Every structure is written in structure tokens, then in C-alpha cells.
Known about the structure:
- Helices cover 79% and strands 0% of the residues.
- The chain has eight helices and no strands.
- Helix 3 packs antiparallel against helix 5, helix 3 crosses helix 6 and helix 5 (62-73) runs antiparallel to helix 8.
- The relative contact order is 0.15.
Amino acid sequence: YLVESGDSETSGLARSYRKALTDIDFVIPLIVVNRVFCTTKPYAEQLQKPTCDLLKCYQSMEHPSTYLAELIYDDNQVNELYNKFTKFIELNEIDNCLSRTASRRYESVKDYFIDVYRTFTQVKYVRWETV
């Protein structure tokens, strides 16, 4: 609506936002970060409560740590999330092609997805282990 009926500045901004939100370079990290943070969010919230039992929380940290390790190394987890990603881009009519920048480094969207997925999950795993 804003693209067609806004003033030139508003429609320009709306076009830019729409392009950014429907870009594969935005969607891949969105899907990956959502999966990882859905795993760690309940534990992070528990740790932030003033009534948190630190011993109990510390003992429960093993579960997300193990799950993050599974996310990194289990190909079934990667493939499941990649399938959800492809459904998401189909439903939202997002082009399933690499950006010019990504195409210099990756041969396919799946290669790009897997690299972002494993890199982010590994970083989160290492950070979680140091809590």
C-alpha cells in the first residue's frame, strides 16, 4: 500500500524495506536464528529471573547444549530446517537464488544455508558452553 500511495520518500522507503525483507540474505539468517533461539530462550529467561535457583539452572544447561550440538552435526536437523526454509520462501514468493555477493562464495542456496546454519549454531553453542 505504501509503495503505491505514499509520497516519494515513503514509497521509496517501503520499496527498500520490502526488498530487504524478501531477500534471501535476510531470510536465511531469520530462519536459522529463530530455530536456535527457540531452543535457548526458555533457559535464558530462567537465568534472568531474580528467583532463579542457580544450581538447578546450571544442571539444566546440559539439555540446550546437547541439542545445539545435535543441530550442528545432525544432517537430518539441517535438512528439516532447509525444507521449512524452502516452504517459507515459496509461501512468501521469495526468489530462491543467491545474491551476487553470496554467489561468489557458494554454488547453491543450500550450500549458503548450511554454512550460515552451522556457523551460527556453532557460535551459539560455544557461547552457551561458556555461560
